[in-house]
Amino acid sequence: MGLYTRLVANLLFPLQEKLKKHDTVAIHEQMEKSQWWSAEQLEQFRLKRLRTLLVSAEKHVPYYRQCFQEIGFNPAQTSSLADLQKLPLLTKGIIRAAGERMKADNAQGLARFNTGGSSGEPLIFFIGNERVSHDVAAKWRATRWWDVDIGDKEIVVWGSPIELGTQDRVRAMRDKLMRTELMPAFQMNESNLDRFVARIRQRKPSMLFGYPSAISHIAKHAQKRQIRLDDLGVKVVFCTSERLYDHQRETISSAFACPVANGYGGRDAGFIAHQCPAGNMHITAEDIIVEIIDEHGNAQAPGTAGEIVVTHLATADYPFIRYRTGDIGVLGTEKCSCGRGLPLLKEIQGRSTDFVIATDGTVIHGLALIYILRDLPEVKSFKIIQETTKLTRVLVVAEGGDEAETRRKVINGFKQRLGESVEVRIEFVDSIPLEKSGKHRYVVSHATQS
User: Fold this and answer.
1) Pick from 89, 108, 100: which is nearest to 125 by CA?
2) CB–CB of 440/211 below 8 Å?
3) CA-to-CA distance for 213 and 194, rounded, in angstroms?
4) Which one of 35, 108, 239, 387 has the lowest number of neighbouring Cβ atoms within 10 Å?
5) Number of separate helices (H) and strands (E) present in the chain
6) How far apart are CA 284 and CA 141, in angstroms?
7) How far is CA 402 from its chain centroid?
8) Element spanning 25, H or E
9) How far apart, in Å, are the Cα atoms of 190 and each of 2, 28, 164, 223, 350?
């Protein structure tokens, strides 16, 4: 760690968090210890925090007070993490309907947030200082796993209107002191890509952080221009907020000559899991309880895929208890070779809308269709939109090649996987529109099983 990085990590950043009335530093110190605890120690710690959260929810949150009363649940008698399964699941629709009744009556200084609605269900919710402190501490710990720290040079490739809309003088000064620089992920045209590559070469960051689709796009552009990014000393690229595909990891790792660390979470669900250098995704278990459920809401055993449901233990001001993420994943049981006792999220297969449905009702991962397009050299970028089980649209940005031949290959490949009777509509376009958040989704399915 360099002298300036030590100054930021040990003095400037802690001072900033103290001025914000965040307990980030103390929580981080605790997390640095608890990551090495045994499963039994961790379980008892989580159980105590869960009981505290549920008791607080009953006392201070109108929605949960009524909910617990209706089902006859006594939070003070919580004796196991499995007791969570006695409670109803929380959805975006329930949060919207409950409105102000989701807020604790003793909450202070809540900040309003919203999700981008890429799943078709945007959500407005609130976060208190406790949760912010815990999420920042968890991210800080995971960052240090990779031998980088707050204060090391960082470039953030992001597209959220929240970050991009707050570039005032104070924010700009803070970013300069912390040595972090923001690049907007919205406009990925040729001139901007040239500018991004040039800026990365000039800045020589120790780490990059952002959407895998955007960072891999920059990496591919540099390779196309035959501009090196592997001689800059980048130690790690942190990818988050989207599914990280294998081909993106390979492109980024090859271009920057460094490992790619996957992170999983969201504004609503929190900082759920992060990859360690041994290659496993560790759940932020001190703060997050992860359940895997089937389509009927029943808990699934480790090793079985299902929807990821999270309970964030630092959300007393605005509780997220058994919150349905809409993502599909698998819990692991093995211990990581890194020695940390934090449980593993073995797989994150993507959002439920990343899966498509064949005409015979078979559910297929979108990767089955993605590979068809990826194998065509003339296809520069694409987006697959399954409107119904009978109609799938494919937006294609092509560079060279014969349009008729490309169309034939895509249609034939899709019909082989979705069914011969499906209509595949190819639309050649100049560019693929991004989500409002700046993210790119390769597959979106609006189809439902009959």
Assistant:
1) 100
2) yes
3) 17
4) 108
5) 14, 19
6) 10
7) 37
8) helix 24-34
9) 35, 41, 21, 13, 29
Residue 267 sits at φ, ψ, to 5 deg, of -60, -40
Q: 427: burial class by Cβ within 10 Å (0-12, 13-18, 19+)?
A: exposed
Tokens of residue 352, six digits: 């439920």
Which CATH number fits the domain 358-445, given the four candidates 3.30.2110.10, 3.40.50.790, 3.30.300.30, 3.30.200.20? 3.30.300.30
Residue labelled with tokens 């045994």: 38
189 has a pLDDT exceeding 90: no
The pair of three-digit structure tokens given for residue 13, joined into one six-digit string: 């950043």
pLDDT tens across 113-127, in order? 877 544 445 688 999
Judge whether 177 and 154 are in contact, CB under 8 Å. Answer: no
Say which amino acid occupies 138. Answer: A
Find residue 385's DSSP bridge partners: 393, 444
Does the pTM surpass 0.85? The reply is no
DSSP 3-state assignment of 126?
strand
| Cβ atoms within 10 Å of 391's Cβ, excluding its own | 14
Structure-block tokens of residue 343: 């449980």
Quote the CA–CA distance of 178 and 143 in Å, as a whole number: 14
What span, in angstroms and rounded, lies between the C-alpha atoms of 84 and 78? 8
Find all residues with CB under 8 Å of 164, minimum gap 6, and list them: 158, 182, 184, 186
Local structure of 284: helix, strand or coil: coil
Q: How many other CB atoms are found less than 10 A from the CB of residue 354?
A: 21
Please write the tens of the pLDDT for every residue from 249-273. 999 999 999 999 999 998 899 999 9
- 355 close to 364: Cβ distance less than 8 angstroms: yes
